[in-house]
Amino acid sequence: MSRSDRLLIAVFVAGLALLALLLVSEQTFFSLIVVLFALAPGVLLANRSRAVSIRTFVYLVLITQVVGLVVVYLNPDIYSQQSLRPLTFTATEIMPLYLTLGLFLVITVGLFLFLESRFTGYKRLNASPLSGVGDSLFNAETTASQKSKKASLNHFRSWVIIAVLIFVLLPLNFWAFSKGIAITGVKPPELPFKLSGAIWYLTKLIAPAAIAYFYIKTQRNSLLGALFIASYAFLLGMSTGSRGAVLLTMSTVIGFAWLDKRWMILLVSGSIAAFSVAVVTASRGIIYYVVGGQAFGDTSLGVFKTAQEALVLALRDTDWWLLVPSILGRFESFKGAWLSMHFDPDAVGGPFMVFLKFVYWGLVDLGHDAFHVEFLGRTVPEGFYNASGSVISYVLMASHPYTYYVLRFAIFTAIYLFVFERNLDRIWIKNGFPGRVLLPLLVYITLSFFVGAGSIVNILLFFAILVLSYMPVKLRFKV
Question: Quick one: which of 76, 144, 197, 320 is 20 to 30 A from 30 by CA?
Fold first, then answer.
């Protein structure tokens, strides 16, 4: 099937969906048209770039807002902030929100394209890894038989390492859960040598990254192996109360199943990940309790008993058809964008304070209670962050009524995405790394920036890429 045929089919299906939406709800239809027309210029501009990061960023904005708006407008009862930010579910009231967002996308993409055109070496660097430069697994002299043997050996070794990692980490996860360590939103006990923080980073960041690294080195064709990692992701999510830990651990399996066109692995691993998110969400009602504005964790049941009770709650209470929109809402949602648009930045020190928080969380303290009262109309326990923290949320929070702040956010976003992708490309070219690994890595770093701009992890990752791109010594990475 040619590209034009696929495009015609996509247009036909989209037309049918819009027609069905018009028949079901006129206001939802016209509101969706507002979103599409407001964001279309930025999307069309992004398609002129060959860069993965800017296209991923723009399409993530489009998908989250289209899905989020349709779900809320068709089911107004799920919008729970009527008393704080009234919403009449019309097309005209959301127009200022999406005109602001559309302006931000146009300026961001325009600046990115300008940087692309000024730095002529960028297109070469960007295109080469994805076109297969350095994508040979072994030297040209290596025979097909040697390639097969070496690939099989790497496959076996990598799965052994993954198994050892998981069987070593699981007892640590269970012990940490029993002691209230690394549970999202719960202040951990004080341990010597800052072990609580070390365990948090090990279980939630380092371990998923290590599993992803060795999974990439396998042949990625084992459904049983995918189920093995999915089981660990579920137990990790249960022992930390973190949906993000589930999605982070499963992202490599799901992403490469899509890239490798292994549809059964994609279907099974994606379904398990979504189901795990629902159960982990239900487990929070069992684990958490609040005393004096501070969240605590009740871990007396243990991981398996908690999972058993959470499973019953999830099967009873979860609206399964809302599961995919809720996962997309982890990146951003229509509700989050709407609340952000009506945020008064002067309540937390002004728009410049919001911008500094966006650049790096550690630069300013917006005030935990003041921030949540302005965003949600209520406080939440210390340790929890129940407000949107995506790039577009920061943009909307600071730019109402200070529209000119859109320019500051657009400049920072364009430079950040351009610099990290250009230098990551340079690392791949210089070291001859396999090109097929670059695409999911670019997507992952873009998603990480989108949902956690200003986090210490993203800051460190950004500077690590800069340093590695200019290192004279070649790195070793074989798949």
Answer: 320
Contact 451, 390 (CB under 8 A): yes
What sign does the dihedral 413-414-419-425 (CA atoms) show?
positive
CA distance 27 to 412: 35
Q: In the predicted model, is pLDDT for residue 266 greater than 70? A: yes
Q: Cα–Cα distance between 335 and 338 in angstroms, integer?
A: 5
Number of other CB atoms surrounding residue 227 within 10 Å: 15
DSSP codes joined into one string, 131-176: HTTT--SS-TTS-HHHHHHHHHHHHHHHHHHHHHHHHHHHHHHHHH
Nearest one of 270, 289, 276 to 238, comparing CA atoms: 276
Q: How far apart are CA 380 and CA 368, in angstroms?
A: 8
Instruction: Write the DSSP symbol of residue 294.
Output: E
Q: What would the two tokens of residue 105 be?
A: 């996308």
List Cα–Cα distances, 349 to 85, 363, 364, 368, in angstroms: 21, 13, 10, 13
Peptide bond into 401 cis (omega under 30): yes
- Among 34-43, 164-173, 191-200, 289-298, whose mean pLDDT is lowest? 289-298
